[in-house]
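Q: Here's a chain of 86 amino acids. Please give me its 3D structure as tokens.
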Amino acid sequence: MKERIEALEPEKNLIVARVIGGDLMKEFKNFFLTIQAIPKQRGPGSVVKCHLKYERIDKKVADPEDILVLFVNASRDMDKMLSSEF
């Protein structure tokens, strides 16, 4: 997968990437991934939100649930690593 950063807002802990190449583009005309880390109001850490915005090439193309599963698994792994004591 090849992507390009469309927006980067450090003050909002936000990044928007646009997929511009790879297998994903065989099924989607446009595909954007937005990730934002929002600091928790109480206690340490952040809540990470992921938003997918896409346009299918054909109505028969399924929703990209695989991408969400990948993101959830990666988030869990990062959480385990960041919350472990060094």
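Q: Can you summarize the key feature?
A: The first helix runs from residue 65 to 83.
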